[in-house]
Amino acid sequence: MANSHKVKIAARLRPRLKNELDDEGVRIVRSDDGPSCICVTNPRDASQVFRFPFTSCYDHNSTQEDIFSTDVQPLIDVVYSGVTVTIFAYGVTSSGKTHTMQGTKAEPGVIPRVVRALFDRKLSLEQEREQESISISASYMEIYKDEVYDLLVARDNAPKLPVRENDAGQVFVANLSSVSIESAAEFGHLFSIANKQRSVGATLLNRASSRSHAMVTLDVKMTNLQENRVLTGKINLVDLAGSENNKLTGNDPSRMQESSAINKSLSVLGQVVHALNQNASRIPYRNSKLTRILQDALGGNSVGLLICNLAPGLKFRQDTLNTLNFAVRTKNVENKPVVNERDNRPAPKPHFAAIQAPAPAGKPAALPAPIVAGPSSRPSIIPAPRSGGSLPGMPSRVPRGSAAGGSGSAPYPGASKRRESGIGIVQSHRNSLNTQLSEKEIDERISKAVELEVARRLEAQERERLEEEERRARERAESESRQSEQPAIPSGLLTPLLKRHQDLDNELRRRLQDLEKKYERGNSEVSLKDAMSPVSRKKTGRAYVALARSHSEKGDLQVALDLYRKAETYVPDNVKLKERIIEIEWAVKQGKPFQPSPKKPRKAKSKKRKGAASKAKDGASHSLPESSAAIRADDTEDDDVVENLLGGDAAQVAGFGVEVTNSPTRRGAALDEDSDDCMTPRKPRKGKRRAAESDDDEWQPSAPSKKGKGASGVAG
Ligand SMILES: Nc1ncnc2c1ncn2[C@@H]1O[C@H](COP(=O)(O)OP(=O)(O)OP(=O)(O)O)[C@@H](O)[C@H]1O
Q: Residue 149 sits in which domain range?
């Protein structure tokens, strides 16, 4: 079993730049008896200081050589032991990531130093181990707006590269070119050409701000000619784009797009680290290309070093705290480094080889048995490397294997030494290719491989199902939070009102339909109208107006218009109704909402109305909160409009269900009153009510009742 290895953290504070203020926002405090600390004052309470202890803290005076010799140089041997190493620089924009990784001609950074060290080591190893041949190849990619591009190919020709996963679960960038390099100088030349292609732009914080994440990968292949085995070490050197605070960067819209892609991928990186710390069942590697590609470095099979770059000063204090918090969480991420070794002995028996057909170049092996990286005549996840050098800047495209490391196989001679250094070795599976295998053994191996494949597929299905569930839960939570953001109306307050509206609407519609059925012989409004008494015509007209009104309130202007027009056939002389039709026609044509014209305040109210209003006030409204009182006030206003339009009293119009709020009791009574048939002439009523009925025989827009008893106006 492989031993675990925690990601190592180094923090580096860059010096102040010319225009930056001299303050003590971030400091490094050294201690003789413990690790050094990065100290940051709490932005909310200056008396509090946050301390972040790391084994490697570099202050503003630190040099590129300091970092390289202390934290990077020891990893060169790890690469030469066949393990994948990933070093990534993380920090806010302008904190010095590119300076640390690339550096300048005068102060070369981690990348050129690593290349030099690899070649130095190669030389000494080749002298030590005569039977071993070592080759180094490089690839260079950038992730720009969540798309992967090959930086070793001219940008015009560079397509977006897909990120894939082989059957062994190893992530790789398909079709990424890999160039064999013979010396550090050759790499330097290649690197400087490729860097010109990297997406860089100016922001207020950095004149040459990286707009992409960039990753150099150096593959070291050690072929043991005597033992016919290949060991592949690898080092990924990642210069991440900086997290950006757009208030400080002053980004324009195109920069904002880049910035949002950068921030999103970094946020997914944070989520991955968080999930790993939580031992979550699902790690969201797939949520961004960056995390997919770095999968091996975070919770995978490589040795990791995170260099946290910090910008000094209070201006960056919050970003510094964010970076340090990320570092603290990353510190706990455990990897299980493995040695990538490949048995390179002769091909297996023909019948076995036929079953385990070699995968075509560039494609993963068919069976999921543990696979190790390296060139081989056997099935391999990594195709044979392109031989020979290439013209810097114009490399030919060669499909390359995983950007991440592979899993190991047979113990490499010296495995015990590596075990001591905390690097695990995956058990050997090379016997699967042994020509001495019996038929039975081969069958067993095949069934095991099939079982593994089935298990893998089931796991993939399960993963998809969980992802789907998570997506649904997220959507549910979002919609719930959207709902909860809406202003709260006391629960249950609107329900009776809405229900009543609905009931009355339906009732009104039903009655109108009944009416039409009963009277409309030739399906003509004119003939129906002609069959009615003047009072019935008016009442039907009101009913249509009421219905129209409720539709116009809902915004169904076309329906409202049709209903107003119907009403007009019953009360053709009503001027207000005509005006209303014109207004709504205009609104429909213009596609604008309909705003009823403001109404003059009424002066006198009938006693009955006042009584009803005060009852309502004393009763329902009294106990209701402000919002409900507002609803009632609005409704009263609506009724008045109808009243105006029809020249009658709202309370009377309520006879057909329009008046919905002021007095539910009255409304119910009104409906009951008319429930048999509102068009059937009724027995004359006594007293004032009957007198009012006779008033109604003439349509008087907004005319107050002659007796000042509008509320008892038209009852039909
Ligand atoms: N240790 C250092 N010594 C001297 N100058 C430095 C150091 N670190 C960074 N700088 C300078 O600070 C500026 C910003 O650095 P750099 O471009 O490396 O930041 P970055 O983190 O890569 O930014 P971005 O994320 O925007 O690409 C550069 O001018 C660089 O030369």
A: 5-343
Domain boundary at 322, 343, 364, which? 343
CA 267/CA 322 separation, integer angstroms: 11
Is 685 domain-assigned? no
323 pLDDT above the threshold of 50 = yes
Atom of ligand 1 lying closest to residue 211 CA: 27
pLDDT single digits (tens) 556-605: 888 888 888 888 888 887 888 888 888 888 888 888 888 765 555 555 54
The DSSP secondary-structure symbol of 207 reads: T
Task: Give counts: helices (H), strands (E), the chain.
Answer: 23, 19
CA–centroid distance, 95 to ligand 1, in Å, is 5
Answer yes or no: is 542 within a domain.
Answer: yes
Backbone angles phi and psi of 148, in degrees to 5? -100, 130
Taking a C-beta distance cutoff of 8 angstroms, is the pair 26, 40 a contact? Answer: yes
| Number of folded domains that form the chain | 2
Residue 418 CB neighbours (<10 A): 21
Tokens, residue 97: 């990531």
Q: CATH number for the domain including 250?
A: 3.40.850.10
At 579 the three-state DSSP class reads helix
In a domain, 512, yes or no: no
Distance 93 CA to ligand 1 centre (A): 8
Nearest atom within ligand 1 for CA of residue 60: 1
Q: What is the pLDDT of residues 506-536, one digit of tens each?
A: 777 777 777 766 655 444 444 566 667 888 8
Q: Whose CA is nearest to atom 16 of ligand 1?
A: 96
Distance 99 CA to ligand 1 centre (A): 5
Helix, coil or strand: residue 485: helix
Residues paired with residue 143 on neighbouring β-strands, in sequence order: 148, 213
Each residue of 494-512: pLDDT tens digit?
Answer: 566 666 666 777 777 777 7
Residues flagged as binding site: 91-98
Measured from the CA of 104, which atom of ligand 1 is nearest? Answer: 31
Ligand 1 pocket residues where CB is under 6 Å: 14-15, 17, 91, 93-99, 206, 208-210, 241-242, 309
Atom of ligand 1 nearest to the CA of 99: 18
Q: What span, in angstroms and rounded, lies between the C-alpha atoms of 691 and 197?
A: 94
CA distance 139 to 150: 8
Between the CA of 454 and the centroid of ligand 1 the distance, in Å, is 50
Separation of CA 478 and ligand 1 centre (Å): 39
Instruction: Give the mutation target among 12, 14, 93, 248 for probing the ligand 1 site: most ligand atoms within 8 A of CB.
Output: 14
d(CA 311, ligand 1 centre) in Å: 9
Residue 606: φ, ψ to 5°: -70, 160
| CA 625 – ligand 1 centroid, Å | 60
Residue owning the nearest CA to atom 23 of ligand 1: 94
Identify whether the C-beta of residue 303 lies closer than 8 Å to the C-beta of residue 337: yes
Sheet holding 36-42, edge to edge: 26-29, 36-42, 45-54
Q: Taking a C-beta distance cutoff of 8 angstroms, is the pair 663, 636 a contact?
A: no
Average pLDDT, rounded, for the chain: 69
CB 576 within 8 A of CB 702: yes
The phi, psi pair for 182, rounded to 5°, reads -105, -15
As given in the structure block, the two tokens for residue 122 are 């190669």
Quick check: is 211 in a domain?
Answer: yes
ipTM: 0.97
Q: What is the pLDDT of residue 601?
A: 56
Give the residue from 319, 343, 367 where a domain finishes. 343
> Can you read off the two tokens belonging to residue 24?
């003590």
Q: Whose CA is nearest to atom 1 of ligand 1?
A: 14
Q: Whose CA is nearest to atom 20 of ligand 1?
A: 94
The residues pairing with 56 across neighbouring beta strands, listed in sequence order, are 10
